[in-house]
Amino acid sequence: MEDWLAQRTRAFDVSGIRKFFDLGASMPDPINLSIGQPDFDVPDEVKDAAIAAIRDGRNGYALSQGMPVLREKLQSEIDGRFRHADRQVFVTCGTSGGLMLAMMALVDPGDEVILPDPCFGMYNALVAMMGGRVVSVDTYPDFHLCPERVAAAMTSRTKLMLVNSPNNPTGAVATREELRAVAKLAADRNVALLSDEIYHDFCYDEPCTSPAEFNPCAIVVDGFSKSHGMPGWRLGFAHGPATIIDEMVKLQQYSFVCAPQPAQWAGAKAMDVDMRRHIDAYRRKRDLVVEGLRDHFELVCPGGAFYAFPKAPWGTSTEFCMRGLQEHKLLAVPGGNFSRRDTHFRISYAAADAVLERGIEALRKLAGAR
Fold first, then answer.
1. Are 238 and 256 a contacting pair, CB within 8 Å?
2. Which end of the chain has less Cβ packing within 10 Å, N or C?
3. How far apart are CA 177 and CA 239, in angstroms?
4. Element holding 254 (H helix, E strand)
5. Model pLDDT, residue 140
6. For residues 321 and 338, what is the distance between their CA atoms, to the nearest angstrom?
7. Among 334, 330, 332, which residue's Cα sits nearest to residue 361?
8. HSE (CB half, 13 Å, CA atoms) of 267?
9. Positive or negative CA dihedral for 38, 42, 46, 50?
10. Which of 108, 113, 112 is nearest to 164 (CA)?
């Protein structure tokens, strides 16, 4: 049966992050720092809105572009933030769905797509699905996107540039000047700019900047999974110029069809809920992790998201993480799942404090175990 399979299925492997997620589900009492899933629950008023929508019979297909109750509210917020004459929003099946639709709308076989290294592994897989070619721009050692490196990576075949700030897996937050320069590069070179802003609310030391502030043609994907603890609800949104968004909506009609209708009514309610106490809690968790590891690991302090990306103090990150799994039931993700280098590893501090404290203790022990 293998000869039935399309070539695109051979272009990438099963998600390494998912492998660790599955391991954590099957292991008794693991120290699970592997998955980027908030440890706080969906706010009660958001749950109530979903339950009310279900009971009120709002269970049929939604409009492919999203129900007015959510889409119009999003449009109003985006208009107020960006004030672009041509910026249209629609509702997606999670941010991942928005990323896939953007890639489908923009990338043809042979097109080059610039990605930061390290980056979320899905980006590479999506480019491969479209038949595109990844051009990686190294961001080591500080994990900031250097505009000069981006410019040097561009060729006549460059079709798309993807930025992600705050970044998964590093937690790095691009500066306003860096994003301004990258946005101008994309505009000057007639390259599409796609910004993954799913961690937009998780900026701890300075306000979060979108490159769309400087490039009105930028496409932005965002969602409710991280900000409201709703990853299982598959509710996201994308916005950009109408020409691009209209094509993405058309592609959604023939793929995802629509985002779940009850979740959209709940999403409209979620927009009114103040989540600042959870963001403050994650800032404190960030500080707990950085303070606990700084004397044992080479670690760039993450400015956002809920990840840290320490350098393995010995061996490869794969060897280091495997030993942590075997000796401490510690689940962290080797850096090779995000990067061409196997030197660093990702830990998620979206976990209870007790789990983080166990994880810090295990990592300090591992650092001294050669």
1. no
2. N
3. 22
4. none
5. 98
6. 14
7. 330
8. 33
9. positive
10. 113
225, 236 Cβ separation under 8 angstroms: yes
CA dist., res. 57 & res. 52, Å (int): 9
Considering the domain delimited by 44-270, tell me its CATH architecture: 3-Layer(aba) Sandwich (3.40)
H-helix or E-strand spanning residue 186: helix 176-188
Mutual orientation of helices 317-328 and 353-367 as an angle, nearest 10°? 120
48 HSE (CA, 13 A, CB side): 5
Query: Range(s) for CATH 3.90.1150.10 in the chain?
Result: 2-42+275-367
Q: Which ranges of the chain does DSSP label H, i.e. alpha helix?
A: 16-26, 44-55, 68-82, 94-106, 121-129, 147-153, 176-188, 242-253, 261-270, 276-293, 317-328, 353-367
> pLDDT digit string (tens) for 191-201?
999 999 999 99
Residue ranges of the chain that CATH labels 3.40.640.10? 44-270
Packing angle between helix 68-82 and helix 261-270, nearest 10 degrees?
40
Distance (Å, whole) CA 163 – CA 123: 10
Give the Cα separation of 83 and 240 in Å (integer): 12
pLDDT tens for residues 256-271?
Answer: 999 999 999 999 999 9
**pLDDT at residue 7 greater than cutoff 90:** no
Tokens of 176: 């306003």
Please state the φ and ψ torsions of residue 92, each to the nearest 5 degrees.
Answer: -115, 165
How many Cβ atoms from other residues are within 10 Å of residue 330's Cβ?
24
**What top-level class would CATH report for the domain 2-42+275-367?**
alpha beta
* Dihedral sign, Cα of residue 51, residue 57, residue 59, residue 64: negative
Count, in order, helices (H) and strands (E) of the chain. Answer: 12, 12
Decide: 340 and 117 in contact? Cβ < 8 Å.
Answer: yes
Distance CA 207, CA 288 (A): 21
**For tokens 């995802």, what's the residue?**
256
Half-sphere exposure of 306 (CA within 13 A, CB side): 28
% of the chain with per-residue pLDDT over 70: 96
Residues 16-67: tens digit of each pLDDT:
666 666 666 677 889 999 989 999 999 999 999 999 999 999 999 999 999 9
> What's the rounded Cα separation, in Å, for the pair 266 and 235?
10
